[in-house]
Amino acid sequence: MENTEQTLNFEHLTTLNVSIENHIAHIQLCRPEQLNSMIPAFWSELPEVVQAIDFYSAARVIVISSTGKHFSAGMDLSVFAQMAEDFRGEPARRAEKMRRSVLQLQDSFNALEQSRIPVLAAVHGGVIGGAVDMICAADSRYCTEDAFFTIKETEIGMTADVGTLQRLPHLIPQGLVRELAYTGRNWSAKEALSQGFVNQVFEDQQSMLKAVFVIAQTIAMHSPMAVAGCKEMLNYSRDHSVQDSLNYMATWQAGMFQLPDIQESMKAAKEQRLPEYKALLQMHPMMKTK
Fold first, then answer.
1. C-alpha gyration radius of the chain
2. Helix (H, G, I), strand (E, B), or coil: what is residue 211?
3. Is the Cβ–Cβ distance between 61 and 220 less than 8 Å?
4. Closest to 141 in 3D by CA, of 207, 194, 212, 203
5. In the predicted model, is pLDDT for residue 264 greater than 80?
6. Of 48, 207, 108, 283, which Cα lies nearest the Cα of 25?
7. pLDDT tens digits, one per residue of 100-146
8. Is 155:121 a contact under the CB 8 Å cutoff?
9. Using an 8 Å Cβ cutoff, are 21 and 59 in contact?
């Protein structure tokens, strides 16, 4: 953590535990008795934490994991109960309010994608409904042998609406996405690995977290500027043509390609030591929303 101890305070959180050490932020879902279902507080706490870590450059990698038997049972029934209250009143205004509600839920997971910091999801047990939406917004996914994934929304009579259907087709074949969405069947860790949805499968959570933190530490050793540039370019290229992406890359380099980190890398190699890079600058206070 880089001189932000007095700024960040996560003691008020009710759905997440957060720790930051060696430039790695560990966010844990912490309601195991309730299968880490996503109650209303979760949808504001997750983006609050991710945006605060990014805003203050408090870490260089974020690892998301969970506690208990399952990663998450997805959206809690209390959220559906709240949304049911929106189905009252004049149809146009009711629909406009509903649309804004869905956009707010989407923004909770958009925060993972929009952060300058790579996000690694380490999941176990059931990854259901909204939990699939969430990890689709991560940069990389890892799971245990007992993990299974379910686009649960179809089974309960609705269309998944906070990211799965938009991001998953960029991660696995279209035909498989459609099968999973139409049927709502469980998707095993083995199948997820074979289709490239997860990077690796581990015997248990302990071995998974150990390995994922090694990956996170490797990322954290690199220039934060270079890593942030990689994430920006990869996200942009997913949504644009090759030519547009190349043009954006050239424009990015015109401003972001500077020598200090390169010189530090070369000096460290010559001196046979690990490079020491400066953190990304904190965002301007006017940009802080919470």
1. 20
2. helix
3. yes
4. 212
5. yes
6. 48
7. 989 999 999 999 999 999 999 999 999 999 999 999 999 999 999 99
8. no
9. no
Q: State the CATH number of the domain containing residue 168.
A: 3.90.226.10
If you search the block for the tokens 């799965």, which residue do you land on? 164
Same structural domain, 210 and 254? no
Q: Do 269 and 239 share a structural domain?
A: yes
Decide if pLDDT at 286 tops 60.
no
Residue pair 252/225 in contact (Cβ under 8 Å)? The answer is: no
Q: What is the pLDDT of residue 80?
A: 72
> Other C-beta atoms within 10 Å of 66: how many?
27
d(CA 116, CA 146) in angstroms, rounded, equals 31
pLDDT score of 2 more than 50:
no
Please state the separation of Cα 112 from the chain's center in Å: 4
State which amino acid sits at residue 173.
P
Strands 148-150 and 126-128, by their bridges, are parallel
Co-location of 54 and 149 in the same domain: yes
> Domain ends where: 164, 190, 221?
221
Strand partners, 200: 142
pLDDT value for 79: 76
The answer to whether the predicted template modeling score (pTM) of the entire model surpasses 0.85 is yes
> Which domain does 61 fall in, by range?
16-221
Residue 272 maps to which CATH number? 1.10.12.10
Total structural domains within the chain: 2
Predicted confidence band at 49 (pLDDT cuts at 50, 70, 90)? very high
